[in-house]
Amino acid sequence: MSVLEATIFYTRSYTQDLKDEMLFGGKALSYSARRVVSFCAVSGICVLGIFYIYLVGSIVAGGFVKEELLVQLEELHSEVQNIERTALQGGRALTTEFFVSRGYHEPRSFDALTRSRNVAETSQKSRFY
Questions:
Q1: C-alpha 67: how far from its chain's center?
Q2: pTM recorded for the entire structure
Q3: CB-hemisphere CA count at 13 Å for 66?
Q4: CA 99 to CA 39: how far, in whole Å?
Q5: For the segment 40-71, what is each residue's pLDDT rounded down to a tens digit?
Q6: Using 50, 70 and 90 to split pLDDT, how confident is the model at 129?
Q7: Membrane-spanning regions, if any (predicted)?
Q8: How far apart are CA 93 and CA 87, in angstroms?
Protein backbone atom coordinates (compact mmCIF):
# COMPACT_ATOMS: atom_id res chain seq x y z
CA MET A 1 0.00 0.00 0.00
CA SER A 2 1.32 3.35 -0.92
CA VAL A 3 1.34 6.35 1.33
CA LEU A 4 -1.36 8.02 -0.78
CA GLU A 5 -3.68 5.02 -0.51
CA ALA A 6 -3.11 4.75 3.25
CA THR A 7 -3.83 8.46 3.68
CA ILE A 8 -7.08 8.23 1.69
CA PHE A 9 -8.15 5.11 3.60
CA TYR A 10 -7.56 6.58 7.06
CA THR A 11 -8.98 9.97 6.10
CA ARG A 12 -12.13 8.35 4.71
CA SER A 13 -12.71 6.27 7.83
CA TYR A 14 -12.06 9.29 10.08
CA THR A 15 -14.50 11.54 8.18
CA GLN A 16 -17.09 8.72 8.13
CA ASP A 17 -16.83 8.44 11.92
CA LEU A 18 -17.31 12.21 12.25
CA LYS A 19 -20.35 12.09 9.97
CA ASP A 20 -21.85 9.23 11.99
CA GLU A 21 -21.31 11.19 15.20
CA MET A 22 -23.06 14.24 13.80
CA LEU A 23 -25.99 12.26 12.38
CA PHE A 24 -26.56 9.61 15.01
CA GLY A 25 -25.26 11.29 18.14
CA GLY A 26 -22.02 9.39 18.39
CA LYS A 27 -22.31 6.15 20.28
CA ALA A 28 -24.92 3.50 19.66
CA LEU A 29 -28.00 3.60 21.87
CA SER A 30 -28.19 1.25 24.80
CA TYR A 31 -30.88 -1.42 25.00
CA SER A 32 -33.03 0.56 27.45
CA ALA A 33 -32.77 3.71 25.33
CA ARG A 34 -33.79 1.73 22.22
CA ARG A 35 -36.77 0.31 24.15
CA VAL A 36 -37.87 3.80 25.17
CA VAL A 37 -37.54 5.14 21.63
CA SER A 38 -39.39 2.18 20.11
CA PHE A 39 -42.13 2.41 22.78
CA CYS A 40 -42.60 6.12 22.04
CA ALA A 41 -42.72 5.45 18.30
CA VAL A 42 -45.27 2.63 18.63
CA SER A 43 -47.37 4.71 21.06
CA GLY A 44 -47.35 7.65 18.66
CA ILE A 45 -48.45 5.45 15.76
CA CYS A 46 -51.25 3.96 17.91
CA VAL A 47 -52.46 7.43 18.93
CA LEU A 48 -52.48 8.58 15.30
CA GLY A 49 -54.40 5.44 14.30
CA ILE A 50 -57.02 6.01 17.00
CA PHE A 51 -57.36 9.66 15.96
CA TYR A 52 -57.81 8.58 12.31
CA ILE A 53 -60.52 6.08 13.29
CA TYR A 54 -62.27 8.81 15.32
CA LEU A 55 -62.23 11.23 12.38
CA VAL A 56 -63.54 8.62 9.94
CA GLY A 57 -66.27 7.66 12.41
CA SER A 58 -67.38 11.26 12.83
CA ILE A 59 -67.55 11.70 9.05
CA VAL A 60 -69.62 8.53 8.65
CA ALA A 61 -71.92 9.54 11.52
CA GLY A 62 -72.38 12.95 9.89
CA GLY A 63 -73.50 11.18 6.71
CA PHE A 64 -76.09 9.18 8.65
CA VAL A 65 -77.40 12.36 10.30
CA LYS A 66 -77.63 14.03 6.89
CA GLU A 67 -79.62 11.12 5.46
CA GLU A 68 -81.98 11.18 8.45
CA LEU A 69 -82.54 14.92 8.02
CA LEU A 70 -83.24 14.44 4.31
CA VAL A 71 -85.91 11.85 5.14
CA GLN A 72 -87.50 14.28 7.63
CA LEU A 73 -87.38 17.04 5.01
CA GLU A 74 -89.18 14.87 2.46
CA GLU A 75 -91.87 13.96 5.02
CA LEU A 76 -92.43 17.60 5.96
CA HIS A 77 -92.49 18.64 2.32
CA SER A 78 -95.15 16.06 1.49
CA GLU A 79 -97.18 17.15 4.53
CA VAL A 80 -97.02 20.79 3.43
CA GLN A 81 -98.09 19.82 -0.09
CA ASN A 82 -101.09 17.94 1.33
CA ILE A 83 -102.08 20.98 3.41
CA GLU A 84 -101.77 23.26 0.38
CA ARG A 85 -103.81 20.85 -1.73
CA THR A 86 -106.51 20.77 0.94
CA ALA A 87 -106.49 24.56 1.21
CA LEU A 88 -106.82 25.09 -2.54
CA GLN A 89 -109.60 22.52 -3.07
CA GLY A 90 -113.18 23.48 -3.52
CA GLY A 91 -112.82 27.26 -3.30
CA ARG A 92 -113.93 27.43 0.32
CA ALA A 93 -113.02 30.28 2.65
CA LEU A 94 -110.25 29.27 5.02
CA THR A 95 -109.61 30.97 8.33
CA THR A 96 -106.44 31.25 10.33
CA GLU A 97 -107.64 28.48 12.64
CA PHE A 98 -107.38 26.02 9.75
CA PHE A 99 -103.69 26.78 9.29
CA VAL A 100 -102.89 27.07 13.01
CA SER A 101 -104.42 23.63 13.58
CA ARG A 102 -101.99 22.21 11.03
CA GLY A 103 -98.86 23.70 12.60
CA TYR A 104 -98.54 27.08 10.88
CA HIS A 105 -97.84 30.17 12.98
CA GLU A 106 -100.27 33.05 12.98
CA PRO A 107 -98.58 36.23 11.72
CA ARG A 108 -98.39 39.10 14.17
CA SER A 109 -98.66 41.74 11.48
CA PHE A 110 -99.83 41.53 7.92
CA ASP A 111 -97.21 43.97 6.63
CA ALA A 112 -94.34 41.60 7.35
CA LEU A 113 -92.88 42.09 3.88
CA THR A 114 -92.44 45.66 2.77
CA ARG A 115 -90.85 47.01 -0.33
CA SER A 116 -87.63 48.91 0.17
CA ARG A 117 -87.36 51.99 -2.00
CA ASN A 118 -83.78 52.88 -1.10
CA VAL A 119 -81.60 49.93 -0.27
CA ALA A 120 -78.60 52.04 0.72
CA GLU A 121 -80.46 53.89 3.47
CA THR A 122 -82.28 50.88 4.91
CA SER A 123 -79.35 48.47 5.00
CA GLN A 124 -79.12 48.77 8.79
CA LYS A 125 -82.84 48.01 9.22
CA SER A 126 -82.81 45.04 6.88
CA ARG A 127 -83.19 41.54 8.28
CA PHE A 128 -81.02 40.05 5.55
CA TYR A 129 -77.31 40.19 6.31
A1: 17
A2: 0.43
A3: 6
A4: 68
A5: 999 999 999 999 999 999 999 999 999 999 99
A6: very low
A7: 36-56
A8: 9
